[in-house]
Design a protein that fits this description.
The protein starts with about 25 loop residues before the first helix and ends in an 11-residue tail after the last strand. The protein is α/β, with parallel strands linked by helices. The protein has a single domain, classed as Aldolase class I (TIM Barrel), CATH 3.20.20. Strands 8-1-9 form a 3-stranded parallel beta sheet, with helices on one face. It has 16 helices and 9 strands. It binds iron/sulfur cluster (SF4). Iron/sulfur cluster binds next to loops.
Amino acid sequence: MSAISDLSRPLAGGQPLTVDASLPRLSPVAHRALERAGLGTIRDKVVGGERLSYEDGLALYACNDLSAVGALANLVRERKHGDLTYFNRNIHVDPTNVCVAECIFCSFSRLKTGDPNAYLMQVDEVVGRVRDLRGKFLTEIHMVNGLNPDLPFSYYTDLLKALKVEQPDLHIKAFTAVEIHFFAEFYGMTYEEVLQQLMDAGLDSMPGGGAEIFHPRARKKLCKDKADADEWLAVHRLAHKMGMRTNCTMLFGSIERVEERVDHVIRLRELQDETGGFQTFIPLRFHNTNNRLRKIPEPTAGDTLRTFAVSRLMLDNMPHIKAYWPMLGIELAQLSLDFGVDDIDGTVLEERIYHMAGADTPQGLARADLISLIRRAGRIPVERDTLYHVAAEA
Ligand code: SF4
C-alpha cells in the first residue's frame, strides 16, 4: 500500500513537486486575443496577481473568446501547480437516499422509507463494501446522505466508528453542510455539538456538497427546504475553526444566472479569506435525467469549460479546482485541465448520485486509467491523499 508523505517528496519518475511560479507566461497570441476581446485590463490584473471584481467575473462570462479566457485561467493554474494534476483512490458510499427535502434538480433522493428505490444501508453493509475493496488500497471514503428522518443520530456515529475499526487509516470525508444543519435541527443540537460528536467518532473532513447556488432567487427555486446560504457557510466556517478541512461546490447550468454564479464564488472567496479552510472548489454540472428539470438543457461543453476557467480566475485564494470526471465525462475532464483545473478527483468506485441523474461514465476508474488520462492530456499525474499530501508510488 502507498505510504503517504509530504509535498516535498519527489514523485516516482523523478519529477520534483516544486512549481516554478516564474515560468508560466501568456503567449503573445493569448495576449492579443485578450486585448481584442476587451479583457486587457483583466489580463493585466491577473498577470499582476491582483484580485478580480464581480464586474470582472461578468466580463469573463460575456467574452466571446473562450480560448482566451481559458489561457488566462491556465496561467493561474500553472503558476500554482505547473503541470501537476492530482487524483486519489477513493470510494463513494451514500448510505441512504431517503430525504425530507425536495430539491428539484435531485435524481438521487426518495421522500420516504418504502418508496420505490428508497434504500438504507446498514452499518455492516457499508463496512463490508470497504472490506471488499481492501485490495484497491483506498485512502478515502466519501460519504453523503439524504436527510433521513427515520434514523437516530447514533447511526452516523456508529458508522464512523465501525469504519475506523475496519480500516483505521482510511480518511473519512463525509456529511455535507446541509446534513450537519439537518442533524442540528432534527436532533436538537448546536452545529458545534454535531460536528464534535462526528469528529470524535472518526470524521476527518467534509465534502463541499449542498452549496448549489447561494443566491436566494435561484436557491428558493432549486432547494427551498434545506440549509440556506448563510447556514451552509456557517457550518463550514465552524468546521474550519474546529480544525477540519472542507471542500466547496457550485451547481451550475440549471436555472441560475451568470450573475448568481459570480456572486456564489465571491461568497466562497470571502469565507476562504476569513478561514483558509477550503481545499478545493468543484463546479458541479447540472444533469437533467430523472428529476423535475428534465426540460432544461444541460450546460454545453463551452459553458462548462468557461465556468471552470472563471472559477479559477475569481478564486485566487483557493488552492485547487477540481473536475469531477464521473459528472463531466473523461474527454471534458481532460480538456478542463487547460481551463484552470488541477485535480480530477479519484477512482470514485461505486458513484451513485450522478449515475442516477443520467451520467454515462464508467462506475469507477482504475488508478492506471487515471494516470493514463492525465498523461494523455499532457500533464503530470500526482496521487494524493484527501489533504493533498502526495502518495509515494506503490
Ligand atoms: S440534493 Fe440532497 S437534500 Fe436535496 S433532495 Fe437530494 S439528497 Fe435531499
